[in-house]
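Internal tracking record. Fields below are filled automatically when a chain is submitted to the structure queue. Please do not edit lines marked as system-generated. If the sequence contains nonstandard residues, flag them in the REMARKS field before resubmitting.
Queue: standard
Priority: normal
Entity type: single polypeptide chain
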Amino acid sequence: MAVFRGTFLGLVVVTLVVSATLSAAHLEGFNFGSVGSQGLFPEFYQSSCPQCCVNDIVISMLQRAIEKVPRVAASLIRLHFHDCFALGCDASVLLDNSTIIRSEKGAKPNVNSLRGFEVIDEIKAKVEEACPLTVSCADIVALAARGSTVLSGGPDWVLPLGRRDSITASAEASDSDIPAPIPLLSALITAFERQGLDETDLVALSGAHTMGFAKCRLARKSVCPGGGGDNTTAPLDVVSPTRFDNSYFKLIVGGHGLLPSDQVLLTGKGRQAAELVNTYAANESLFFQQFAKSMVKMGNINPLTGSKGQVRKDCRHLN
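SYSTEM-GENERATED OUTPUT FOLLOWS
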């Protein structure tokens, strides 16, 4: 996932088969992850805005968005990652430039790369119609990341809610804290440890690269197709780029990881990372379980709760 910098430029979804149960974003047997951390809990909107309704709106809007622009599923997972790694999971990444805000959208890891903002805007507008000034943009980003995973064939998880939106942003934090796709495992581990995440989380969350595309200028030249210059893109998972599955790890085991930060999970000086790559390549269920747990853990990075921050009416601007 470090890994996420400059990646996830696209996703092609050929077929979306969505059942009524899935549209509620809770698949029986796929509710992995701990709850109640950092003052967050799944039933946060039960009385103020019934969670079933919030989830229904998110899934409905995501279905339409992914059908229209398939790569947005990968983009929304990446958006959650970039939000959480800079200041915490507080929707600071959504703020536009203003007289008092220097937007994180202009930071090096995000500029001309991070996408999905319009989808968040559309979801927020619908949620505001149902429950004005109740559901935070930060929670909508987290819900959209989960929904994008589920709609692409990946795991569901119990999602703690109750985040509030920040009243500031930090392009500097984005530049310093979002890890680059470099072939140095120790640096990737350190970047994750600064956020309270460990080597297991690094490997599991990197598995989100089972979807999306990356520019060849960021990729291993032996893997990225020739021609077209550095702006040529290639799928992060050439086997099944339309599905959230474990093919990403199988490709790494075969020496075909697209990004240096992908392949180094196997070849770097970290026995645990290499063991996990092999485990997830052999057992998709174990990968799904850990990915869900790690997404919950990442979603708990420094949230604003209680009276801190605000619930924005417009995710791009302060109230």
